[in-house]
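Support request, please re-run this one:
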Amino acid sequence: MSASSSGKGNIPAIEVRDLTVAYREKPVLWDIDVSIPQGVLLAVVGPNGAGKTTLIKAILGLIKPAAGQVRVLGKPYSRHNRMVGYVPQRGSVDWDFPTNALDVVLMGRYGHLGWFRRPGSRDVELAMAALEQVGMAEFAQRQINQLSGGQQQRVFLARALVQDAPIYLMDEPFVGVDAKTETAIVDLLKALREQGKTVVVVHHDLQTLTEYYDWALLLNVRKIALGPVSEVITEDNLKVAYGGRTAIGVL
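Re-run finished. Output below.
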């Protein structure tokens, strides 16, 4: 499904204007302008240190930019935080925290419940359905530190799914997972797109871009290109992004 055929309005799912993020005065993102239409499955690609994760965190308000603004469905993210499901990098999560898979997924319901209401039977039902969707229902009571890397990633995907958000941001969901889990994640991403969701994924494998995604954002501190994958992943754009050192499929 392309942006033009998604049947959505003209309001971008995510709009970033003049965004600059710096760490110790060194720019990590510089003057980024990005408008992501509703209903696309988009990969954020670029070399290490390009600012891919930083962009996701800036959109979510987890990092304070030096300049610029972010709008989600036409409004500041703080007014739309229930509209975005987030899957962080698996390596950034404390997997020794004593909790089971079902409780992790139920955390995705807190935006609907508020922090002072306990999840009810309907929330548990939705959480179990999300675990079923990612093939993890039989592990609902398993402690998360007893799960494999691929299983942990599936649980985090279920946590995002149970939010039932129109927009999903996922930071490297394919890292450290087996081939079976990767296939399951791809199927899930495409199913979300078919439901009209907007899905933005930090991705590393250029060879799978055309197969997995319909749009791409090529980044290296600055925005290099944004649009349909076939228009973004060109030899000229890759030379700009990777300095002429990188062949397609090798990051």
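Residues 1-7, 247-251 have pLDDT under 50 and may be disordered. The longest helix spans residues 179-194.
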